[in-house]
Amino acid sequence: MPKKSDSTSSGRNHVERSPTAPVLAGSLGHELQGHANERAQHFFYFVVTMKLVIAELNAIGGEGTPWQSSRFVSIKATEQIGSGLRGDAVEYNDFVKTNGGVVDQPTTHFADRDAAHFCNLGLKAGFDAACKASAFTRDGFERLKAYAGNTMELPQKVNLGPDRAIDVLHGELAVAMLDDDTGVVFSRERAKTYRDRARAAITTYIQNRRLKSEFGLVACAGCYLAAYDDDFRDRVYRRVYPEIIGLCESSAHFRGQAHKFLA
């Protein structure tokens, strides 16, 4: 019998999905391309929401303020929605990292699967207390928990492979973009920066895996590259900019001022 993987040892705040929630089961290659796109969107949802929540807290004032926008950002996941799976039953397949054909197999056919984070960022201690300052910041805190914790099931070797390269990138970009006050937190240029950095990280990963003849992981990483196409910048922008406008309109201090966060 397959078993849910144990996430309690990670120290994360863990919430299980509803047992009736759907599980995506297309080909691994198709799901990885969608996962790469969703990772970018979750990243920017998290970053822009954090920027606005901290701006609101600074406008309200209080002990310790003003804070840098990255003050409460952890570069490691602190929340997790869902669990992975460990199984050795005959209906499950091993992930063969030397076999480029793994991308054609259904995502749910692999024996060892992880709850792979879209965002893989987290929230530092004390942020929940700070966010009790207003209805807007309380709502922002709940949004950030959801963005930080959301996952999908992927083969463990993918989660520890190309997906890990994007985890590292998210940690680097989040702090840099949040604390850079020379411009707005989100723009087409920021989306392009993400795409270019993600392309470079995955290309380096592919080069290293090819040296070890791990063509299954090379094929998986290639699905991420396919997501970072020429339309990526505008596609991400179209998904994220309405979130900023909506957040600003629900803020007591930044209603009608989306231009301070969006270009």
Using DSSP, what is the number of strands?
8
**Number of alpha- plus pi-helical segments:** 8
Kindly report how far apart the N and C termini lie: 52 Å
**SSE arrangement, N to C:** EEHEEEEEHHEHHHHH
| Spatial strand arrangement across the major sheet | 1-5-6-8
> Using only CA atoms, what is the Rg?
19 Å
Mean pLDDT: 91
Query: Helix/strand/pairing class, anyone?
Result: alpha+beta
Low-pLDDT residue intervals, each spanning 5 or more residues: none
Helix content: 40-55%
Describe this structure in words.
By secondary structure, the chain is of the alpha+beta class. The protein has one domain (26-260). It has helices at 28-60, 127-130, 135-149, 156-159, 162-179, 188-211, 215-227, 232-249, and strands at 3-4, 13-15, 73-74, 79-81, 85-86, 112-117, 122-123, 151-155. It has a four-stranded antiparallel beta sheet. Helix 1 packs parallel to helix 5 and helix 6 packs across helix 8 (232-249). The longest helix has 33 residues, at 28-60. It is globular, with a radius of gyration of 19 Å. The protein starts with a strand and ends in a 14-residue tail after the last helix.
